[in-house]
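Justification of resources, computational component.

The compute hours requested in this renewal are based largely on the per-chain cost of generating structure records like the one below. Each record pairs the submitted sequence with a full structure-token output. That output is archived, and it is also reused by downstream analysis tasks.
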Amino acid sequence: MSGNRIGVLIVDDSAVVRQALSARLSNSGDIEVIGVAADPIFAMERMNRVWPDVVVLDIEMPRMDGITFLKKIMSTRPTPVVICSTMTTRGAETTMDALAAGAVSVIPKPTTGLKQFIQDEGGDIVSAVRAAARSNVRRAQDAVRAPVSVGPAPSFVSVAERGSILGTTTDRVVAIGTSTGGTQALEVVLTALPPTCAGIVIVQHMPEKFTAAFAARLDGLCELEVSEAVDGDRVLTGRALVAPGGKHMELRRDGAQYRVRVFDGPLVNRHRPSVDVLFRSVAKMAGRNALGVIMTGMGDDGARGLLEMRRAGAFTVAQDEATSLVYGMPHEAVQLGAAEREAPLSAIPEVIRKYG
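The structure output for this chain reads:
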């Protein structure tokens, strides 16, 4: 950071966006816009003189696209990057590429009414920049590249004991909650899992219209079936369901089967979907049949829900500080006593494999 202020460079080919973002960020009190650029070539010239703490980056720009520029930054000097992108299908898919390349988070922007949008939703961009400034991009990049480790299996309650507690099913469920940095972390975890692993339910804080592209990307990379959840979907072995952006997701029991409920509702911990909403439902519906995993993210969403899972007999794991892009959500869970174990990102797939 530049003293006590966060130095930000805005890279966007729209003068209207540059002006509106500059005004909103500069008025936050702790953020200083140290420069603006109409494309990545101009941006790199500025960065060679003064390197920013955070880059706010558009994707579609002249001379060099945002993805290429992002990869250049990450290979030269890993720096927190917040993507500010339009909410089109093509834009969503490209944004997933940006997150996979190391962007910290995404702020969607509309194609019209930009000034009003930034005024109305300006808190989101300010929060995203503040979170990005507190992230450790280099550490997270190292964690993503680390080989998946194989270690001793944790001690789980036996299938027979689980059955005696819940009576009608011994099916296991893995519930994962994550936020900032979670797209890369989830890719590491899910691509390392076999199609025989227990059914997985996931909340990743992400804007509406982006979760479908995120799930589709993972589905193309994984042996598992990965999809954006639809109300009533069954939780099955070898399937991972991602909560849709803008909707909450809960686990429900249907006889001996698990299904998900996808629904509207108020924000919980400032989020929809909320990790707490998912974890609390898993505690009630699955109890000791569940494994709870909380990973990198800003804030405390999921910590209390994970505690409820642990109290219900579930095995609970938090990603450790050394491999978290933002050690916020996992830290809160550890402080509450919600996590039975901390583990590096590279060890989490093995915990899931041996569990289910």
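Residues 6-134 form a domain with the Rossmann fold fold (CATH 3.40.50.2300). DSSP finds 13 helices and 14 strands in the chain.
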